[in-house]
Amino acid sequence: MSEDNLSAVLHGVDDLRLEQVPIPKPGPNQVLVRVHTVGICGSDVHFWTHGAIGSFVVKEPMILGHETSGVVSEIGSEVQHLKVGDRIAMEPGLACKLCEHCKTGRYNLCPESRFFATPPTNGALSRFVVHDADFCFKLPDNLSFEDGALIEPLSVAIHSCRRGNVQMGHRVLVLGAGPIGVLNMLTAKSVGAGKVVITDLDDGRLALAKKLGADATINVKGKSLEAVRAEIISALDGQQPQVCIECTGVQPSIETAITTTKSGGVIVLVGLGADRVEIPIIESATREVDIRGTFRYVNWYVDHTLQCSSSFKTLSYPTAIELLSSGKLDLSGLTRAHYKLEETLEAFKRNRKADVMKVFIQC
Q: Where is the Enoyl reductase (ER) domain (predicted)?
């Protein structure tokens, strides 16, 4: 095996370096992965430009990247379901598997969880990375490595739609037409939503969303909340959305969601912005508009309404792979840019331009 393990290491704000790091060794239940493709996420860029996201602060050098696909290069002694040469998508979070959250199926809420490229855990922008085998998922032959890297953000959208209980025929409003917003729109459509409206400030992103299947698009730039609300309801044939998926994290968008959602409906908060925002909470409370958070994703959970072993349901990564492999969800229309690992800094600069939906780095 080559000793080359070039990696993109963040040392601080605007200090991203390419460095050689030791090739890790897999433990008994781990695999060594030869990384193929990594998608750049907004969180990667935020760590690069700000050095922190909330309480997660870069205090020591950290490898970036978490939207990852690759090839199994070596397996641990206890690994049974994978073999050398398997093409995989990697779920980048690891939980303790022992706490109440883990044991009841909501391991994404585990207080001891570790996540690629979230301080102090290294990410996957490397030639090689080690990961727990049970968080690696085989890719079907008809999915590319780029599809494999997109499984991660698509899983965010699947979990968000599940949290919103999006059902066949539902009217859905997605606020924000960035990568996560567009993936939520596509996911809602794939599970049978009747009509999906998406909002944004950028005509280019809205045009792409329309091309990919949005039933209506609304540019909210310079408009009052009342005007935006009226446009949304008009686009939904005079009716309010039952589900709003908020993907921006900005105050006016959150307020729009609260005032526009149908009484008894659901708002899912996906976008993360300021720590505190002013919202019309009485409007939500008196109309029983549920406001639900969402954090990453899970691959199984316990439905406590079912008193049997079948109450464990698979979600997110397996669902994302099946949706793509079956053709029920098509991501080929997403605009893309491609860079080599040696061009990581250029790739991050390109991502900030936001002229394509996803920037990929081939490792």
A: 12-361
